[in-house]
UniProtKB/TrEMBL annotation:
Source organism, top-level taxon: Eukaryota
Name used for this protein in its record: RPP40 protein
InterPro entries recorded: RNase_P_Rpp40
GO molecular function: ribonuclease MRP activity; ribonuclease P activity
Species lineage: Eukaryota, Metazoa, Chordata, Craniata, Vertebrata
GO cellular component terms, semicolon-separated: multimeric ribonuclease P complex; ribonuclease MRP complex
Name of encoding gene: Rpp40
Amino acid sequence: GAEGSTLMSYFSKNQIQALKPKITFSTLRDLQCPVLQSNDLQGNPEESCSTEELFEWLGAVMNQVSLDNKSSSFLSTYCCPEPNTVVEKAFLCTITGFIIPEKIIQLLEQLCCYFGEPKLAHWLTLTVHGFADSPVSWRESEHGFHKGGENLYNFVVFRNLDYWLHMAVGAYDDCPP
């Protein structure tokens, strides 16, 4: 009766708040970026970087690790892979929350607008992380937390609409076909 309806109104109010994704934006200036060729996954010395080098670089950028290889840094001596180019302005947007696949597709479509004028991006990326302690990752297998709870995929989309897809899961987890 009355108790049930009070409970429902409490949950509907609070769940709406809890499910609202948190969005943060930042502009990265003079960012060293790997040079990529959409048709060259392995990379080529002096021409382009490999998919693995890009994936490692992305991790550093997303975690705001310095890319200048200073020996005085206690955090990291990582530097951007070669060949690279300095991008005057890069845009980083992080959305945290429970996001349905349809919204991810929508985001990807909106990001592709950066290939048009006046932005004319060469390539862009979209990384989707599952929660580290999520009970499932892909297929119907349980997701093992073990050390890091890796559970993510990353799209790299090029101006010609070719794309790369990275997938990362823990050692004991199933990976999609």
